[in-house]
Each structure stands twice: as structure tokens, then as C-alpha cells.
Description:
This protein has helices spanning 10-29, 40-47, 51-63, 80-89; strands at 38-39, 67-71, 75-78. By secondary structure, it is mainly α. It has one domain (7-93): Winged helix-like DNA-binding domain superfamily/Winged helix DNA-binding domain (Arc Repressor Mutant, subunit A), CATH 1.10.10.
Amino acid sequence: MNDALDTGRSSDWGEEQLRYTILQAVYDRAGRCCENIVTGAEVGGALNVRTEDLFRGIHFLEHNGYLNYLGSGPRICMTEKGLRYVEEQAARRRSIRSDGAFDLRRRR
Length: 108
């Protein structure tokens, strides 16, 4: 089954953009360093997004290797993959697509 984020619907594009925006916010708040820890409250407050959307985005990014989840709060930090994506790949695309293997909507 393909991830619904690959269907081309505008809401799917919004989901991809949200993931990138969360990753960029972690990158900015962590001082572009993988060792620096950021809280979900910092990111959510800066982006003014719903808690449900923030946690869904963080979960996706952690599951796909862009962020490390370090504990409740949530406390998160960038991975090397996430850092490289923001610094190298983002110039071409300001979103993060699913490869179809991960879809939170299928878990409900």
C-alpha cells in the first residue's frame, strides 16, 4: 500500500512541508549541532502548530532517521541524516516525503 502522502493531494503536500518545517526548527534551535537537545515545546511554540501535528511529525522524523527521540517532553535532537538533509537536500525541496513504508494513518 502506498503512503497517502504520495497521492498528490494538497493536504499531503502540507504534511510533507510540516515535516520539513519541524526538522528546520530543530536544526535552528540546536545551533546546527546533532548533540544539542531541543524540546517539543520549544519547536511547537516557535511554529505555532497543534500538538497532535507536532507529535505526528516528530514521530515520522524519528522513525525515518532524521531525529533522535531522547525522552518525554519530547526531548529530541538531530541525527547526521537530518542535519545533511537540511544543509544539502533542502535547497531542492522544502518537504520530506514518505517512502510508503511508514504511515501513521494505517495504525489507527
